[in-house]
Amino acid sequence: xxxxxxxxxxxxxxxxxxxxxxxxxxxxxxxxxxxxxxxxxxxxxxxxxxxxxxxxxxxxxxxxxxxxxxxxxxxxxxxxxxxxxxxxxxxxxxxxxxxxxxxxxxxxxxxxxxxxxxxxxxxxxxxxxxxxxxxxxxxxxxxxxxxxxxxxxxxxxxxxxxxxxxxxxxxxxxxxxxxxxxxxxxxxxxxxx
Length: 193
Fold this sequence. Notes:
Number of helices: 6
Shape: globular
Number of strands: 8
Helix content: 25-40%
Order of helices and strands: HEHEEEHEEHEEHH
């Protein structure tokens, strides 16, 4: 049964508007060659901070289409201390990798970036994890289209932390990050591995 894309998109945007009611939002296309053919309705929603000290939020909208035929969908988000167009590319590249792998990015997956997440950062990988900063308020989107969407957090991690995930699992890293009270918005945060 084909998924009603307009219904899913409107549910997704209502969900984003509900969570970030007062924040300015931009909907940005990804200009990479061939991206339009693979994910035709894909955009990145950039959420401006409403208050000092709040993060910039970059959310995928349209990654769900990679697995819609299986009755499930995922979207991804990245938190950042600054507004940088590179974050749009990062979220888009993850969505495209998710599409190319037919939805193989799951909780606990590690995505190598090939470069630092932000200037001066040792974090050059992303951990696909639950949206801890926003909890269940963000995680699930009821679409009314026969399946729900799940948001997954793209948490920047170091190569050593990525190796820890490979050896001991994502929970081991998450426990260390929590114990260290890691500041996820600090590009220069110390590795916990």
